[in-house]
Amino acid sequence: MTHDIHIIGGGLAGSEAAWQLAEAGVRVKLSEMRGSGDMTPAHHTDSLAELVCSNSFRSDDAENNAVGLLHAEMRALGSIIMREGDRHKVPAGSALAVDRDGFSAGVTARLSAHPNITIVRERVDALPEDGLAIVATGPLTAPGLASSIGAATGSDALAFFDAIAPIVHRDSIDMDTAWFQSRWNKGDGKDYINCPLDKEQYHAFVQALIDGEKTEFREWEKDTPYFEGCMPIEVMAERGPETLRFGPMKGVGLDDPRTGRWPYAVVQLRQDNAIGTLWNIVGFQTKLKHAEQVRLFRTIPGLENAEFARLGGLHRNTFIRSPELLDPTLRLKARPNIRFAGQITGCEGYVESAAIGLLAGRFAAAELSGDVLPPPPVETALGALLNHITGAAEAETYQPMNVNFGLFPPIIGRTKKADRKKMYTERARSALAGWLAA
Hints:
The chain is of the alpha+beta class. It contains twelve helices and 17 strands. The strands form four sheets. Strands 6-2-1-7-17-16 form a six-stranded mixed sheet, with helices on one face. Strands 10-11-12-13-9-14 form a six-stranded antiparallel sheet. The protein has a three-stranded antiparallel sheet with strand order 3-5-4. Strand 1 (5-8), helix 1 (12-23) and strand 2 (28-32) form a beta-alpha-beta unit. Helix 1 runs parallel beside helix 10 and helix 3 (80-87) packs across helix 4 (100-113). It is globular and about 65 Å long.
């Protein structure tokens, strides 16, 4: 099949862009280097839309949460990522978490079966000279293509580190010590496994994190900053002895059945696959060496005999300075036949990456049909995120960003803080409806 557009990268953004274009009747060539003999430091399979870190798409509350609102907007636009996420949902309280293998397999099957999509397992080492293309290679772009992007943009790519949390086999968790409960009993109330620590255990654990043997940085990695939303747990520990108690190890809203009280600190695990055999340690992204992880995490009450399906890791992410390089429809100003999508644009998070892929696909489909699709209103989650990436952020200090209400235009007039989030979401729904009807 000849193609109308070339998508480079089969992650969440590339998969979503391919789906949107194919559903619009556009013939797509989707190039993915995994499966051709190449692999990234973070991936483990050649499945499209593989989830390499958490299995959570975060909050699914479309009334009070910006990412939940983004979920709803993507569903309204026929997102394959949201469709497969909903099909492969696993318990996670008020969040949307998925069976990572089932989810990726579902996306791969749907794209492979689409008559307008041709999937080619190949590494692309240079930006296409002509024809429309979408670059969605993610934060682990291959060196050759990264060099080509650098040459086209005239500026160096920025970079940051992203860390991966460990996954534990459910049957190795001691449920005489740990218990099922969601914080404040949200969702089904039993969507997390909780491992309690008393004051002495907590402070010993924090010190061990600080003292533990870490992965050494290469020379070219030493000045790379971390992304605040995916901070390694040992880096958080170094910021102060109480930092983790107000972060991923906070015990509030959880009642230890052995004492009837909130624990001093807690380690939570969240279901990672549909059958409930694998559970990931929430917020425990780490750059500790593997042997050190096993030793240290087995000091956590309830995990003394933990068996790990995957240990934590660390990889470098790269992204371009999008606010100065991209136009409002994600085209590279210097090479307008090329759009960028996903984490390489500087958005952060699975859903955000897919959302930018969705928009890139729709913008390209409109261009191919001779139409002009205006960006979604900035009052919507899609529009606010796109606006941040393509101009609202300061280019010189640009850093990865999750969708949040701080990206939206403020609500006019005096409002109660408790009502503000709902006002954002109600305004967004109205704005999206108007955009879709135009």
